[in-house]
Specification:
Helices cover about 40% and strands about 15% of the residues. By secondary structure, it is an alpha+beta fold. The chain folds into two domains: about 1-25 and about 85-155, no CATH class; about 30-85, no CATH class. InterPro entries: YHS_dom (IPR007029).
Length: about 160
Amino acid sequence: MNKIKTLLGGLALSVSLTGAALAAGVEVNASSTGLALQGYDPVAYFTEGAPTKGSYKITSVYEDTTYRFSSEANKATFEADPEAYLPKYGGYCAFGTAMGVKVDGDPTIWRIVDDELYLNLSSDIQERWVGDIPGYVEKADTKWTEIEDKDPAVLLQ
């Protein structure tokens, strides 16, 4: 139990030290304006194999959240099947979700596993997550059903 408290404390400290703000939304990690992935193109992770900034001129709104794209082709791909490109756990940190909290996922610290996009808070956190991806995904899937509709700030108390 102390390990979990220490880890959660580290996650909370990382959030405050990096200046990352908890998302304004509940189910989706988006800015107060509703912008997801800090403006990164969700399709590019799959097609380019890298985080790619989207353009403010090429956007699509899905479930009240705005996504930006680096090309019209990526926008069309997303609009044809948005669920295939959305980050797991609403874009919150996959490791944090496994621990039962919602902390920002950094769109530059990512991994695709079994055709799903996962974000992590930091490189250090991702190193731990990579140590047991199947186990953490299983835990996160279970925890997500419990925390999906909860305010991120409440979970850190």
